[in-house]
């Protein structure tokens, strides 16, 4: 990493920090800024190992007058968000900067050259990219703590940094950009960073569409243009016009798993919003094309289409514009609950694509290729990726909700109690009904409100074009009957539309049985006939890690994928694996390139679906340059995994993993499930109780309001441990597993062999190393000191911290390093820069939690808001929430 790159990042952090300081001084006076500087100085020196400064920091924070607590938390929160902008800007500007391991992510051009060296023909490269189907599924998991109004200001601040950097020879431009920067930072400072109300599912969908409008609409054609240029150099041809190696789907407005706020009505509204937004964006493209395509030379096909006119392209585009305007008006009328009485509208992708393709072919036929491959090609690429709906909307519902419908139905028809039937009886009944031509559900069937909602969702499916919808995902799927039930409901209520049905396997037990379940399913002729020889299966990362611990879950996910690949090969069925990853390591997060290449060989065969969640959507796709890099990383990884798959693990590595996972699982369960002090400790030491008041997303934080850790969603579970820097879910159990193996003969050698030769294990260790570097047991100990009274709970906390410290030693031993992140200086620097700004927020959060508990949750609105801001600031500083 060259020195000047780091300097560029530091310069921008300083520019933004100085501007924030001036803004705060204007608002609250220089003396307040001096207080902030005193706090930061204590924190910085404390980080250098000065324990006196650490104590002085805590003492200083505890003596702050109450009126200062909110502005102090806001100042540190704002700085951390500005530091993120500087880092994001840096990554976009220097696109080849490696975030994780130096040299681990090749540029696409390098990869294409490598693929040819091992015998792939240029034609094979083009075909592989043309047939690639990577779907990035934007989900509304409540991990985005920053309000949309602030995100827009932060994007504008990023633009100011670009203007300042490019104004070396134009000082007046630089001065204007600096002035605008000061204005935007002042706007951000004077804007409330915490939402006052939870977003609705429709708000979340609007946020997702805004990412497409503001970033992906530009990044998608840029990505294809870069790909075309590479292929022209490598293979002498472009990507086919209708190819879309990377597409986008969404769960926003379709994910009803445990979220009572997502109803059939909401799903319908979100689908209409997508149609309205797509029409609005295409209208801008078509207006530009109408302005630019003023040529008169055209081929006979286009002339036959438009007649003898002077400007044939404009004539065709005018017709398309009229239909597109009608489509936008229709969608708006539907959203407003009005009747639409306008002209014909565009219903399918081909209705936009065909006229644009006619223009493209005509321009090429008359020798105007340069014009054809300009703005017109960009629009064709957008149509191939975004269709008429911007994203395909997935639907997700729990298996138990479908079973409830069948129970009510069989009971009301006098057929018995579905819930009491064996799996074999259920399958026989469902398959018979799938074959039957008569309807099963009576026309005026009286059922519960919950079942009516399920039925209404399938009615929405029936009313839609198939291209508007993605996959129907069944969470907590455990048996073939869970999939057959959805297939039957789709047949009974969903009309002609048949969506792919993906069971989601997410607990340890379900992952272990995933291969058997899909094998049984594909062996059923009645089901196989519905699949068109394609099967999608979703692998859950969050709940399996919460259920079993990270190490055992990661190995179970790997084995489940292997089993599914083998089963689908045996049945001659194309498998698409859908990875339900979160942003954090504890929920399967991490660098996309490494994650994809660490999957079992054959599991990424040109197709892949993966969730992009919460704040990760903004970090990866929030700006065109970053989105372009993210798409390149996905295309690279999937191409590499398809053409140059990783080696299968050696048999003795598998045995090692079986043992490591067994020990880690037992250690994890021994604490989380079996120690009676664990849940009380978790509730006492983390801000879990206060988290529910942070209006992050539309879903409740718990599946049920009573019970222990199992009732908590994976996101607040991870969020709470992240806030106190213990990060427990992502490492608990690993230390025992590795320590035990290191004590045995040959342990160190075999672990190091697996690390260097097996991408799955190497990636796991890299993620563990990064997580250990972000964690901080001294901070966790301070929360305990401030918030936990009971001796037995304190004893548990001490044991957990000792386990963490042992794990750190063990990981350094395996990696043969003196300190964490030795080989990834950019991440090390990012953590070091942020720590002096995060530490005061931890101190303030512990103080505010204690005051909140003393007041039985009745602290003043300002203090309550300050507590929320500490959560937002710590999340921003660590670059992840859940």
TrEMBL record:
<keyword id="KW-0456">Lyase</keyword>
<dbReference type="GO" id="GO:0015977">
    <property type="term" value="P:carbon fixation"/>
</dbReference>
<dbReference type="GO" id="GO:0006107">
    <property type="term" value="P:oxaloacetate metabolic process"/>
</dbReference>
<dbReference type="InterPro" id="IPR033129">
    <property type="entry name" value="PEPCASE_His_AS"/>
</dbReference>
<feature type="active site">
    <location>
        <position position="546"/>
    </location>
</feature>
<dbReference type="GO" id="GO:0008964">
    <property type="term" value="F:phosphoenolpyruvate carboxylase activity"/>
</dbReference>
<feature type="active site">
    <location>
        <position position="141"/>
    </location>
</feature>
<dbReference type="InterPro" id="IPR018129">
    <property type="entry name" value="PEP_COase_Lys_AS"/>
</dbReference>
<dbReference type="InterPro" id="IPR021135">
    <property type="entry name" value="PEP_COase"/>
</dbReference>
<protein>
    <recommendedName>
        <fullName>Phosphoenolpyruvate carboxylase</fullName>
        <ecNumber>4.1.1.31</ecNumber>
    </recommendedName>
</protein>
<keyword id="KW-0120">Carbon dioxide fixation</keyword>
<comment type="similarity">
    <text>Belongs to the PEPCase type 1 family.</text>
</comment>
<dbReference type="GO" id="GO:0000287">
    <property type="term" value="F:magnesium ion binding"/>
</dbReference>
<comment type="subunit">
    <text>Homotetramer.</text>
</comment>
<dbReference type="InterPro" id="IPR022805">
    <property type="entry name" value="PEP_COase_bac/pln-type"/>
</dbReference>
<dbReference type="InterPro" id="IPR015813">
    <property type="entry name" value="Pyrv/PenolPyrv_kinase-like_dom"/>
</dbReference>
<comment type="function">
    <text>Forms oxaloacetate, a four-carbon dicarboxylic acid source for the tricarboxylic acid cycle.</text>
</comment>
<keyword id="KW-0460">Magnesium</keyword>
<dbReference type="GO" id="GO:0006099">
    <property type="term" value="P:tricarboxylic acid cycle"/>
</dbReference>
<dbReference type="GO" id="GO:0005829">
    <property type="term" value="C:cytosol"/>
</dbReference>
<dbReference type="Pfam" id="PF00311">
    <property type="entry name" value="PEPcase"/>
</dbReference>
């Amino acid at each position: 990493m060259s020195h000047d790159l780091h300097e560029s990042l530091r310069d921008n952090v300083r520019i933004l920090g100085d501007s924030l300081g001036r803004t705060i001084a204007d608002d609250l006076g220089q003396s307040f800024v001096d207080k902030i500087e005193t706090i930061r100085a204590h924190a910085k020196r404390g980080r250098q190992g000065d324990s006196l400064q650490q104590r002085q920091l805590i003492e200083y924070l505890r003596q702050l007058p109450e009126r200062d607590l909110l502005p102090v938390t806001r100042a540190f929160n704002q700085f951390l968000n500005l530091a993120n902008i500087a880092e994001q800007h840096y990554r976009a500007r220097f696109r080849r900067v490696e975030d994780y391991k130096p040299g681990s992510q090749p540029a696409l051009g390098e990869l294409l050259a490598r693929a040819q060296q091992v015998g792939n023909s240029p034609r094979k490269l083009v075909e592989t990219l043309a047939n690639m189907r990577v779907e990035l599924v934007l989900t509304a998991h409540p991990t985005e703590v920053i309000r949309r109004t602030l995100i827009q200001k932060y994007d504008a601040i990023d633009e100011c940094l670009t203007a300042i950097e490019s104004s070396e020879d134009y000082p007046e431009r630089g001065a204007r950009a600096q002035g605008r920067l000061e204005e935007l930072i002042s706007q951000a400072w004077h804007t409330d960073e915490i939402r006052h109300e939870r977003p609705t599912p429709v708000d979340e969908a609007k946020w997702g569409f805004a990412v497409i409008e503001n970033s992906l609409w530009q990044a998608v054609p840029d990505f294809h243009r870069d790909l075309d240029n590479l292929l022209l150099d490598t293979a002498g041809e472009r990507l086919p016009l209708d190819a879309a190696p990377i597409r986008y789907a969404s769960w926003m407005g379709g994910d009803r798993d445990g979220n009572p706020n997502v109803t059939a009505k909401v799903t319908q509204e979100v689908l209409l919003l997508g149609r309205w937004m797509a029409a609005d964006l295409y209208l801008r493209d078509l207006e530009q094309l109408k302005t630019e395509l003023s040529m008169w030379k055209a081929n006979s096909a286009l002339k036959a289409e438009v007649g003898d006119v002077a400007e044939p392209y404009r004539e065709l585009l005018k017709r398309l514009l009229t239909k597109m305007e009608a489509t936008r008006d229709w969608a708006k009328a539907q959203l407003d609950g009005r009747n639409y009485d306008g002209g014909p509208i565009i219903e399918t992708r081909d209705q936009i694509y065909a006229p644009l393709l006619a223009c493209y072919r005509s321009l090429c036929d008359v020798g105007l290729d340069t014009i054809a491959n300009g703005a017109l090609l960009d629009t064709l690429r957008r149509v191939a990726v975004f269709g008429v709906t911007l994203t395909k909307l997935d639907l997700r519902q729990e298996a138990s909700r479908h079973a409830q419908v069948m129970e009510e139905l069989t009971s009301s028809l006098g057929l018995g109690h579905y819930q009491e039937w064996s799996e074999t009886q259920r399958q026989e009944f469902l398959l018979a009904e799938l074959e039957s031509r008569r309807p099963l559900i009576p026309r005026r069937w009286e059922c519960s409100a919950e079942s009516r909602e399920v039925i209404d969702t399938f009615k929405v499916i029936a009313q839609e074009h198939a291209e508007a919808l993605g996959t129907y995902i069944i969470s907590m799927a455990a048996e073939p009957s869970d999939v057959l039930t959805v297939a039957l409901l789709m047949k009974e209520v969903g009309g002609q539309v048949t969506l792919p049905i993906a069971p989601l396997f997410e607990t340890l037990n379900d992952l272990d049985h995933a291969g058997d379940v899909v094998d049984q399913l594909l062996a059923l002729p009645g089901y196989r006939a519905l699949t068109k020889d394609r099967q999608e299966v979703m692998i859950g990362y969050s709940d399996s890690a919460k259920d079993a611990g990270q190490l055992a879950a990661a190995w179970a996910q790997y084995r489940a994928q292997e089993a599914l690949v083998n089963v689908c090969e045996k049945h001659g069925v194309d498998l698409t694996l859908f990875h339900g990853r979160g942003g954090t390591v504890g929920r399967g997060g991490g660098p996309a390139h490494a994650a994809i290449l660490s999957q079992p060989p054959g599991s990424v065969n040109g197709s892949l679906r993966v969730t992009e969640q919460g704040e990760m959507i903004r970090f990866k796709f929030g700006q065109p340059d970053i989105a372009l890099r993210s798409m390149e990383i996905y295309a690279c990884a999937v191409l590499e995994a398809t053409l140059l798959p990783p080696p299968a693990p050696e048999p003795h590595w598998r045995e090692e993993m079986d043992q490591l996972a067994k020990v880690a699982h037992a250690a994890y369960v021994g604490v989380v499930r079996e120690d009676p002090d664990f849940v009380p400790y978790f509730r006492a030491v983390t801000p879990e109780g206060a988290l529910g008041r942070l209006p992050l997303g539309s879903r409740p934080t718990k599946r049920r309001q009573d019970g222990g850790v199992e009732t908590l969603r994976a996101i607040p579970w991870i969020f709470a441990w992240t806030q106190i820097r213990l990060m427990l879910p992502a490492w608990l159990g690993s230390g025992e597993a590795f320590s035990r193996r290191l004590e045995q003969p040959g342990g160190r050698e075999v672990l190091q062999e697996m690390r260097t030769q097996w991408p799955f294990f190497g990636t796991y260790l890299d993620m563990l190393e990064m997580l250990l570097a972000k964690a901080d047991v001294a901070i966790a100990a301070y929360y305990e000191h401030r918030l936990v009274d009971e001796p037995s709970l304190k004893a548990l906390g001490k044991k957990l911290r000792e386990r963490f410290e042992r794990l750190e030693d063990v990981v350094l031993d395996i990696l043969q390093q003196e300190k964490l992140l030795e080989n990834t200086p950019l991440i090390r620097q990012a953590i070091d820069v942020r720590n002096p700004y995060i530490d005061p927020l931890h101190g303030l959060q512990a103080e505010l939690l204690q005051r909140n508990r003393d007041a039985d949750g009745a602290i003043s609105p300002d203090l309550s808001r300050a507590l929320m801001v500490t959560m937002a600031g710590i999340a921003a500083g660590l670059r992840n929430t859940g």
